[in-house]
């Protein structure tokens, strides 16, 4: 358990610095450290500044979007020849901003379920459901949806598909025509958990699903709607798990769900995100000391 400790915050003044360059990011870090009163008091050996708190035994965790991550990382590599650890930015530890990771995840889902022409053929697919939910905006949402709109639509479609799966499973197992009828019967916790397990195992593509075996079946044996829906549910649940873990502060779960997202990022061409996520996890477990994990 992490012990409770009082933290102190130092508000920083506005800085007119161009963050689109490597130099701008270096200047921003230097200005932030200077305003915080930390740095290298012996940067000038002939005139040590005792008013500056020595940061050489500490690290500064810096997080930002992918552009910031790349620029600070480049700055650290370019400064390897500097004389002091402070000037080498040796104290800087870059951490990817999770909000930007979630934005990239939403964009990846759009690349998989919206942008391909084949994704619009399935009458029970993601795009068709969006057309039913937002009939007046469906064309705009395909090409120019903002992150908040994507986030909301992903959650709404997920809820609809899960409710449909629950209704089918409840009718098959217990004979109730609707979920309202089942709820009125006041089912016990064990019964609800049994149905939930069945929904995950039967209607969501995941561990144990033999995708290749399904594709080798004849057209008359395959249920393509169920195959596509189970795959869509898999992607949407991965997004929901990432979003929930971030909102709940469950860092362990965020780390666990990074592995499938790295593969998804590579599949949709977001190679930079995939690479930096892998580098972050590698540094977390194999580079940083246990106290920093």
Describe the protein's topology.
Blueprint: H1 22-36, E1 38-39, E2 53-54, E3 60-64, H2 66-78, E4 92-96, H3 98-113, H4 126-133, H5 138-144, H6 147-174, H7 179-184, H8 189-203, H9 211-215, H10 224-248, H11 251-267, H12 271-286
Parallel strand pairs: 1-2, 3-4
Helix pairs in contact: 1-2, 3-6, 3-10, 6-8, 6-10, 10-11, 11-12
Describe this structure in words.
The structure is a single chain. This protein has two domains: 22-96, no CATH class; 100-284, no CATH class. Helices cover 58% and strands 5% of the residues. It has helices at 22-36, 66-78, 98-113, 126-133, 138-144, 147-174, 179-184, 189-203, 211-215, 224-248, 251-267, 271-286, and strands spanning 38-39, 53-54, 60-64, 92-96. The strands form two sheets. A two-stranded parallel sheet has the order 1-2. Strands 3-4 form a two-stranded parallel sheet. α2 (66-78) links the parallel β3 (60-64) and β4. The chain is elongated. It comes from Pycnoporus cinnabarinus.
Structural class: mainly alpha
Question: How many structural units, i.e. domains?
Answer: 2
- Shape, principal axes of CA atoms: elongated
Radius of gyration: 25 Å
Mean pLDDT: 87
Order of helices and strands: HEEEHEHHHHHHHHHH
Low-confidence stretches: none
Biggest β-sheet: count, sense, barrel?
2 strands, parallel
- Number of H- or I-type helical stretches: 12
Terminal CA distance: 13 Å
